[in-house]
Structure formats: structure tokens, C-alpha cells
């Protein structure tokens, strides 16, 4: 019973179907009919002119999006626990040619105008220190927390005032929007985001994420960078098909709601154990080594996590669109019984 | 009727089946059971201990393989028409951090010890000029020509004598082996190749190529580089499944033979028009603009090509594992009738 | 008797004097009073608003200038024999983060609109091939040839028409202007050049070259790149002093005229041996191995050079501001006597 | 009266003399007789076989040295306040092609095995996080503190145990050795350091620092990297001359002792105001804004500094080999009188 991550869940049947429907030969790379529909599909979703392209991974998506905003000698403000800092194997250093991540604090891995300003104000202007060119936030965060539209707007106001781009890592964007109940535009373009990595893989896709540019001219340089990074697949239609199927009929939200609901069911059993409020599909719980062993003994698979200072041990539990209801229920019961 | 490339052909049914059989959740990235089988599968195929990893594109495969052999201040000898020089959007410069391609000549886009030596001997030792660290050859070449085991051995002897690594871009390796009728080892590890990009996408795959290291310790650094390049997909099992299915029962050779046979059928109709001997699945033909227009008018889709000096016009025709026999026959007839 | 290059000549007494006059402590880096005078000094020289900064080497100057014009995924058109291609150890790949040099032909290492167009027209638009972003020409060229203002204007017209920046490597700019007899502006900003590497080291300086931007806003990014490349020396006043002394009273032209005159004296003795017209301070001559040995036996030090096809051997002879007249005369006589 | 830094002090007369003695033409780059003496000079100084090369700046020296130890996908452990992190404009990201600085804590900007281990132990092995390849320490530190031989040995023992290289940024190495009274080998090669940036510029030089490799084979790759970074000056003899003169007769220690003595004189006047013990030539003092203004009103020039939490204000005072005794005395008196 796998609760270690949503990133290895099966592919949703409607994604499979869309991929197979794309099997007829078409123009290579992104010259096919499906890839050509991405701009329109996201323009529909967000209600403003968008440019959107596919890539295979969130790492590539995040770093390529940032490469349109940040020169090699520049920096990106992000949270100390951000995926680009902690879990991408140094990819920002590669894609941005040595640009620097400028690390900020914030509860629940959420940045605030205050924590960002602390970083910005600590940088001496001039050539001796790396100057910021963009801010990157994660929605939902690495702690499963969700930025409200107002929170994003406050950050974007700061970004604008300082002349910085604003990128959103939306590996779990669907989970965040499902939680907020707002429109996807409210928490992105309406709140001043310039580029969004729109995650699909964790939400029932196989191998496609979209980079959505609300400042559509940013896409031009990214097309070159994508090719140059070996990310322009020749059978791109199978990636476009996944993304289009995800948007079709709101599958992205449907899947995210299912994952969020499963997380809530488990969270309800965790009570005082919860380290962070559960807003998306990740649950961080205090669990002693013995308790972890007990759960693993019952067949539950999950990651150790670093406990907040003083806590005796912790774990991360992640649900997905496909978490079997009986496994979710079993996990909730098992935790309650500890 | 699409003869513009094999890189947009449909996915073979056995590849689809293998991908779908991989749908159950497993460990993420390359920690899954299928990815774990790659080393053994290629060790079986080549008869020596191999290390093998998946990537999504040939560009990533070529450049990651080379990144294990070439430092940022070094160079790679390749043919002036090599894919890494002509068609990868500068990816070698990105993956190798500014290392340089050192361009050599050779008929049919084939390097020879002589043309390589001309390049090597023209480089002054010392820090003022970029020094070579590897040679990269393409099998089959960009002109559809195939290196024999003896030809590869001669190049590897030179590489060894000069302390250079030897990489083979095998985007159409299957077509080359199908043409040669030798074992895959004969023309690679047996002939001194250090790393092979083993192509699947052009041969019925969807989105997986293998990098095969005959010097298995080279893989270690490439694992880091793959992650850092955003190429470590979290649902890697779907890529491993494609490669394993391709090897299973010799599908890779079966598909290549089909493509090669279709190419021979068309070649037979081309007679004097042929610019290069047809050895794999690419046919380069002299076709005047009017003839090209005539063929296109009949529904044949293909690329213009640069004609050899003095020729009145040229085109590239590419067959694939799935080229419909009646379309192949129709094309052959149409050319013969010109 | 050293005629191997002008790049190891002594430092001119007026440069020494200026450096020593700069010895009093001042603000570090380029915050000193001398560095602050560079913009005005070059604005005076060229008659238009210029921004100018010092660097220690021509390689750094060329590559930093280009880094303001060319993104990592772009390319620079230059001559096949250009210093940036042949003699900078891959520095453009480093400073430009993997951008590509696009090599053009041209007699005497001079580009022409035609040879540049041949390169440009051979590049397919789109992401699969590296697109040009700048042209770099060398004045005087690696063969000692000089572009006229009209020739530079013709190249800049092409650059403008194609949206490309135009950089001039002026390691021997002084020698070129001394030959032309025009104003320095005529052959640079007046002819459409965007940035000039203004050489001093080969012309009597010790360790300072200037990068002069005729599009002054280009300097901003280069200030960051210079620091990041470890080229922002803390005692920058000693570099600024060299450059200012070079401009003061026309020392740069005076030194170049001396070097050119010495070259003419030698050239006059070479007659039919000359491979290129002698316009600056380099002389390329046909010299058989025996003749080379004879000259070396008389104490003359120079580099072998690659002879034009069919010629029996060649050498490069370089004069400098400090070539002793009796050595120049001796060399001329020795060649005439061969 | 300038106490803002030692990095803008005049050039020592013996350095000037040595540079002028190098004026006769010699082979270019580092082929001259003086550059050829560097290995032997440092071998003498350290008592073990050394390879040593010149560069113009400490930034280039630090980053080039590290480039021999750290691949682009690797990391360097350094102090959060290290110069490479805080004051080199992102140069490590450039020279190391995106490698990452892994920041550790430590009082007085000194690392300890414990603070380094905290960083190392927090890194998950594998490709998802950047793995360490080297440790860089600064001697004396950015807070003017000095590592003892035993402290360096403890760090190198950890480095060896973890398979990491050990680099020492010795911009103020002379000041540290002058303070310690040990041999220069005791605190470097004898304590396990692999490469040392041996500073001269802050100690009476003009534009030359040495990189000294105690593992001499590391120099080979750095020679290529230096050229590629535009740091191979053609008149290298003037840089070699500076370094040789600095070593000659112990000038480096003599100058450092003068600077340290001046710092002690000022420190003695600071009493409770001292933020760090004064061991080299930097004095960090608590000074209220009013006190700072008072000192500046008397003609003293220095940098503001970030005060330790809770302190009302702070400043950094730096002495050099050339700090005029009467100015030092005046500053001491002025502080005492506050």
C-alpha cells in the first residue's frame, strides 16, 4: 500500500485513451495537431492569452521557465525547502548556467513578502553579490500548504516593485486549486504570476508537464532552451495528448479532488500528530520509529521525514488520484489505532 | 503518405502492451523493477557487462554519454554533418558546458581514421586550442550509410592511440545491424566503442532511448547528469518497459528489417537518382523541383535535401517499421514513373 | 631578435609612468578616479557617448563583449581563422555558456557580406539549429589585413538587416587605424560596430585592454559578467592608468605607426615571398624550412606558419612598437639575402 | 586615511622593482623564465613538490582551484560568510558550471568538523541532491580569524574520510601565518590542504595571486581552465615577477607582520568594542552610527558592517602593509576617545 508519493501512481485511463488516439503519424516534435492546441487549451482555462509547451518533467519545466527570466549572473529567490533547491540535483545551476538560488524562510515552505524582503534587503546592490531576477513559489508547497490568491498577489506586488519575474512551481497545482475552490486564474495570472509549471505527472499523467506563460513572449526563448536541453521529443503528440486529456472535462480537478479527499480522510485520523495543516494531498505526521515500524509492518509504504525540532520522529504520507479507498481507510484506521 | 522521417511513426503494439503492463505503481524514478532489468538485458544482448539507463531523446542520450568522456574545456571529433552538430540545437554546448565539436570530413557522413587524423593533427597541443577528448560516430550515418565492424575498429584503434573516448550515436543502430547482419556486439563493444546511444524512438518506441555503457563505470556520473538535466522521469518504468519490449524477442531487429526492406524497395526504383548507397532506411535521391512537386501532388510527404554540388535538386525519403506496404509500393512506382 | 609576436614586447615608458602615478591608494575595483575617466576618454576619442571598461586580456574582452549580445543558445558568426575560434582555448564556449561559433570564409581572414550570408543562409530557422545573434570581425585580421570603413559598413548593414550585433576584436586596432589613416570612429561606430575590444597589450601596454561599447547600455550586463569571471581586479586603477596613458597624446597611434613602419621595412625585402599584403604589423612570408633555419641561425625568432596550399613553407613575422630599428633592418637584409 | 580594505593599498617598492626588471621581452604567456620559476619557489617555501601558477585575482584563483576538484554536478562546502559565497558575484557558479556552494556555520567564519558534518549529514546520497566534492576554508577568515594547524588538520581528516578535496582561500594567508608563527607548510600541506590560493594583491602586490597545488597533478586541468577563462595574460612575466618578489627574502611575511601590528595597535584601543579577536589585519568593532560619523568626520574611511544581533552598529577596519603609522596611531586614539 503505497503512500510514499503521488509521483509513481498509474496513468489515468482517460490519459491512456488519449495517448492511443494520438498514435497515427503526424508531424514530428511539436509540429503536430495536438501540440498546436495547447495554447488554446490553456487560454480557455485561464481566460487570458497563454503560450504553453510540454516537457517531460517538473524539473525541466521549472528550470526552463526560470531560464526565460534569469540571466546566468542572476539569482532566484525561493524557499529553503523548495523542490528546485532540495530535490532537483542542481538542475537550476545547470539550466540557468550557474545562476544562484537565494534562499528564504517561511512556515510550511511558504514564502511571504516579509521573508522575501529579508533576502532582498540583505543583498548589496552592485556586481559583488548575485542580484535577484525572479521569485519562484511552489503551489502546493513541499509541506502540502496552499497559497491563497491574496498571498500570491502580495508576493507578485513585491516582485513587480523590485522588477522580478514570478514563477510558480505547480507540480501539485491541481491539488491547490481543488483546495482553494477558486478559478485557476485567480491564483496565477490574476495574482500576477508570469509562468506556471502545470503539473500532470503526479495527477494521473505519465510523462508530460506543461509550462504555461501568461507573458506569452517568454515562450520564444524557452522553445530554444527546450530543444537544447534534449527535451524536444520527436513524438511530442503523446505528451500533448496527455495534457489535453488532463484539461478535458476537468479531469485535472477531478483527480486532485480525489487525492485531496483521501488525504483528508487520513488527516482526520491523525489529530495531534499533524505537523502541517492538510490542504492538498500530503500529510506530515509525528510518528515515532516504533510507530513507523508498526505501520510498515502492516504493509504501508511511506517516507521518513525530518521532524520539527524536538519531535520524536515524523513521516510523509501522500495520496494520489488512484489511492484505493480501502487502502486509505486502512491507513486511517491504523494510524488512529497507534 | 509520410516519408519525411521515421521519428514520428506510431508506437509498436508490443511497446504499447509493455507500457500498459507497467501501469501498477512501483518505486519512482529508476528504482522500479523494470529499470533494474536494463543492465541485464543489454548485458545479454552484447555479451559483456553493460550499464544501461533510459532517457527520453537521442539528443539527451548523445550528450549525456559524451558528458562522461569530455570535460568542459575539451572537444569531441564528429562529422561535419553529424546530428550533434547539425540538429540538436546546440545541445552539446549545453550538456558539455561549452566543450567544442571538432568537425571532420568523410563521404556519406562517415568518419575515417584519415579524416579524424586530419582534424587531430591540425590541433596544436597546449592550452591555446581546444584539445580532443572523444570521437562520436553515427551508426547509421546522417546519409544512411553503415560502418562495418572493421571500420569502427579502425576508428577505435585511433581513439585508443590518442587517448580518446569513442561514442556511437545509434539513433538508427537497429537499421545498421539489420543491414550488416552481424551481432550487435561486433560493431560496438567488439570494435572498441565505449558508449552507445541505442535508439528506440525511430524504431517503434514512443519516448525512450537507452544509453549503453560498455565501460560500465561511466554510468555513475551520467546518473547525476541525467537528473540534473531534468531527464530523470518519475514514472521511469514506462520508459524501461519500452526498451525491454524492444529487446524482447528481437523486436528491434524485426522492426529495423521491415524499415530497411521498404527502403530497398524504393531504392530499387530510384536507379541513377540515388545520391548514397541505401544501406539502412534512408534514401537520398536527386529530384528536380518539378519532380518533387509531382510527388507531393500525389500525396507523398518528404523533406527537401541539399543536393550534391551541381545536382538539380534532392530529397530525403525515410521509411519506418510501420511504412504501409501499399504506400511504399506506390512511392516506388511514382518515382519510377517520373 | 624577437619577431614571434607583439604580445610579449616591453611596456612603454609612458605606460610605466602612468601606472606609478596611480600608486596612491584609491577606492578599490573600478571605483577609483582613473577608471571613472574611461568613459569620457573614449567618448572623446570616438566623438559619441561611449561606455568603456578595462579587462586584463583580449580573450576576456572579446568574450565579455559578446556575452552582452549572444544568449547561451545562440551563435556568433566569425572567420574560420578568428582568434576567438583558433586561439582562445574555447573561451567563447565558456563565457557564452555553450553558444556556438559559426565559421565563415574570407580571404586574408576577412569576412565579407557574401561569406557571412553563406553561413546565415545555410542555417534553418527554428530550434533545431543554433541561430546567429552576432558577428565578430577582427581588425586587423589574423592575416594582418585591414577592413576599410566601407567594408565594415557593408557588414554592419547586413548585421542590422538580420538583427545581429556587431563586435570588433581590436587586438591590433591601433595598427589598423594607423594604416587606414582614418579616424577611429570612421571604422567603428561610424561604420555600425556595437562593441570594440580596444587592444593595448600588444601595443605597449602591460595588462589592460578596454571594451568600448558604442551602445552604452550593453555595458551593464558586462560589469556583472566581468566580476563573475574573476576579472574585476581590486587595484583596477593600474589598468585604467595604462589605457588612459595609451590614449593620452595619441600614444596608441604613435606606437602602432612605429610597428607598422617596421613591418613595411621588412615587407619591402620580402617581395614575391609575401603571402598577404602587409597592412598592419604582421608579415606572412613563404620561407622554406632551410630558409627558416638560416634565419633562426642568425638569431631571428618567429613562428612557423601554415603555408597556402602548394607553398613550400611559411613563417609569421611580427613587429611591435619596440622592435629595435637595427634588428628590423637586419631582418630585412637577411631575408633579402636568402 | 583609508582603513576600508587592504585591497587598494599601493604596490610595494620591491614589487615595482621586480616588475621593471622583467621588462625585457621574453616568451609570451607563461613560457617566460620567471613563470618557470614559480614551481621551484613554492617548493622551496613549502618543502614539498608544488605546482604553482599565477592569476590576476583571488576570485579567479579560488574558482580555478576548485574547478580541479569539483565537477559541474557537484558541490563545495564553505562557510556561509565565505568570500566565494558572499563577494565573488557568483563566480563559483560560473567557473564550476553550476556546481553548488553548500553553506556551513561556524563562529568567526571558521568551519569546524562539526559544522561541516552537519552539512554533509544533511545531504541524502544519490542523484536528487547535490553531492559534496570539496571543502573550501578561508585563512584568515572573513572575520579576521585564523585556523591553527590542528584545526586545519581536523578538517582535512574529515575531508579525506569523506573523499573530498580541501581548498584554502589564502587571500590573507600571509597575515594568518604571521599570526601563527608556524611554517607555511604546517598550516597547509602539512595539515592536508590540496590547493591554496596564495594572496599577494592585498599584501603589497599589484595584480598577481598564486594558485599552489600540493597535489601537483591538479594543475594540469587548471592550465586549460585558466586560458579558457581569459586569465592567461600574454605578458605573464609581470605577474610572475610580483609573486617571486613577494617570496624573495620573506617580503610576504614582513608585509603581513606590519599590517598585523597596525591592527593590534588599533585593537588595543577598542577594548570591549571588539566583535572578534584580532588575529590578522581586520578589526571588527561595535560603533554606533554617531560614533561612525564622528570618526568619518575626522577623515577615517572604513566600511559599515553588520553588527551581531542586538548590537547598535558596527564597522570593519582593515590595515595593510602600507598603513601609515601616524594614521594608525591617530585612529587608535580617536577610537579610544569615543
Summarize this structure as a short list of keywords or feature phrases.
homotetramer; 338 residues; alpha/beta; Aspartate Aminotransferase, domain 2; Aspartate Aminotransferase, domain 1; 2 domains; seven-stranded mixed beta sheet; three-stranded antiparallel beta sheet; 13 helices; 10 strands; 38% helix; PyrdxlP-dep_Trfase (chains A, B, C, D); ArAA_b-elim_lyase/Thr_aldolase (chains A, B, C, D); PyrdxlP-dep_Trfase_small (chains A, B, C, D); pyridoxal phosphate (chains A, B, C, D); L-threonine aldolase (chains A, B, C, D)
Overview of this protein structure:
Four copies of one chain form a homotetramer. Chain A is of the alpha/beta class. Chain A folds into two domains: 11-251, 3-Layer(aba) Sandwich (Aspartate Aminotransferase, domain 2), CATH 3.40.640.10; 253-337, Aspartate Aminotransferase, domain 1. The first copy, chain A, contains 13 helices and ten strands. Chain A has helices spanning 13-21, 38-46, 58-67, 83-86, 91-95, 113-121, 149-162, 173-180, 219-228, 237-247, 251-270, 289-297, 325-336, and strands at 51-55, 74-79, 100-104, 131-138, 165-170, 195-198, 209-213, 282-286, 303-305, 314-318. In chain A, the strands form two sheets. In chain A, strands 1-7-6-5-4-2-3 form a seven-stranded mixed beta sheet, sandwiched between helices. A three-stranded antiparallel beta sheet of chain A has the order 8-10-9, with helices on one face. In chain A, helix 8 packs across helix 11 (251-270) and helix 11 (251-270) runs parallel beside helix 13 (325-336). The model of chain A has no long low-confidence stretch (mean pLDDT 96). Chains in contact: A-B, A-C, A-D, B-C, B-D, C-D. Chains A and B meet through helix 3, helix 5, helix 9 and helix 10 of A and helix 3, helix 5, helix 9 and helix 10 of B.
Amino acid at each position: 500500500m503505497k503512500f510514499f508519493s503521488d509521483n509513481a501512481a498509474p496513468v489515468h485511463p482517460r490519459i491512456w485513451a488519449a495517448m492511443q488516439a494520438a498514435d497515427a503519424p503526424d508531424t514530428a516534435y511539436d509540429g503536430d495537431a495536438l501540440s498546436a492546441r495547447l495554447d488554446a487549451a490553456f487560454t480557455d482555462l485561464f481566460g487570458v492569452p497563454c503560450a504553453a509547451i510540454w516537457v517531460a518533467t517538473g524539473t525541466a519545466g521549472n528550470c526552463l521557465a526560470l531560464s526565460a527570466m534569469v540571466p546566468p549572473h542572476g539569482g532566484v529567490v525561493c524557499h529553503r525547502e523548495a523542490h528546485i533547491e532540495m530535490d532537483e540535483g542542481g538542475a537550476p545551476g545547470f539550466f540557468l548556467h550557474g545562476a544562484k538560488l537565494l534562499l528564504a524562510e517561511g512556515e510550511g515552505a511558504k514564502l511571504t513578502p516579509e521573508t522575501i524582503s529579508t533576502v532582498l534587503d540583505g543583498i548589496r546592490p552592485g556586481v559583488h553579490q548575485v542580484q535577484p531576477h525572479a521569485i519562484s513559489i511552489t503551489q502546493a508547497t513541499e509541506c502540502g500548504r496552499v497559497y491563497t490568491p491574496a498571498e500570491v498577489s502580495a508576493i507578485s506586488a513585491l516582485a513587480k516593485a523590485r522588477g522580478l519575474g514570478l514563477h510558480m512551481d505547480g507540480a501539485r497545482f491541481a491539488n491547490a486549486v481543488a483546495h482553494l475552490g477558486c478559478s485557476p486564474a485567480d491564483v496565477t495570472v490574476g495574482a500576477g504570476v508570469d509562468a506556471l509549471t502545470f503539473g500532470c505527472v503526479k495527477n494521473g499523467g505519465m510523462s508530460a508537464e506543461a509550462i504555461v506563460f501568461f507573458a506569452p513572449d517568454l515562450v520564444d526563448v524557452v522553445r530554444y532552451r527546450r530543444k537544447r536541453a534534449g527535451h524536444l521529443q520527436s513524438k511530442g503528440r503523446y505528451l500533448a495528448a496527455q495534457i489535453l486529456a488532463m484539461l478535458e472535462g476537468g479531469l485535472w480537478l477531478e483527480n486532485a479532488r480525489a487525492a485531496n479527499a483521501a488525504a483528508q480522510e487520513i488527516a482526520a485520523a491523525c489529530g495531534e500528530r499533524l505537523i502541517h495543516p492538510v490542504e492538498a494531498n500530503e500529510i506530515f505526521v509525528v510518528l515515532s520509529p516504533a510507530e513507523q515500524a508498526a505501520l510498515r509492518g502492516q504493509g504501508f509504504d511511506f517516507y521518513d521525514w525530518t521532524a520539527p525540532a524536538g519531535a520524536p520522529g515524523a513521516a510523509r504520507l501522500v495520496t494520489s488520484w488512484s489511492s484505493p479507498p480501502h487502502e486509505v481507510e486502512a491507513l486511517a484506521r491504523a494510524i488512529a489505532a497507534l
